[in-house]
Amino acid sequence: MPFAESLGVRISAASPQEVRTELDWAPQHCTAGGVLHGGAVMTLADATGAICAHLNLPDGAGTATTESKTNFFRALREGTLHAVSRPLHVGRTAITVQTELLDTTGRRIGHTTQTQAVLTA
């Protein structure tokens, strides 16, 4: 994913059951007051969830996000943002994943639930 890679998103683990990624806080990714921009947070969540969905696809299928909702609980002003995605539902036409967004100490920064369409030829 070129956009996620350009932001510095890194994959630390990936399996159909769980995907882990991370993004370091950086001033160029912030809003006023040194807070990591919500768009950067959502990019990490979307990329992580998409990888998780992709790993659960049948052979030859593709995927596209059809719905995504993020709740923000606290700001990230330093350190690394960690994302952990797990499938909630793997169906024939849709895959729903849940992504927890955590700071370096494990405190929850946010939570994303997204649905990916299963695209077959």
TrEMBL record:
Q: Does the keyword Hydrolase apply?
A: yes
Q: Name one Pfam family in it.
A: 4HBT
Record flagged with keyword Hydrolase: yes
Source species, domain of life? Bacteria
User: Where does the record place the Thioesterase domain?
Assistant: 33-107
Q: Which UniProt keywords apply?
A: Hydrolase
Q: Which family does it belong to?
A: Belongs to the thioesterase PaaI family.
Which PANTHER family does this chain map to? 1,4-DIHYDROXY-2-NAPHTHOYL-COA THIOESTERASE 1
| NCBIfam families named among the record's database cross-references | unchar_dom_1
Q: What is this protein's name?
A: PaaI family thioesterase
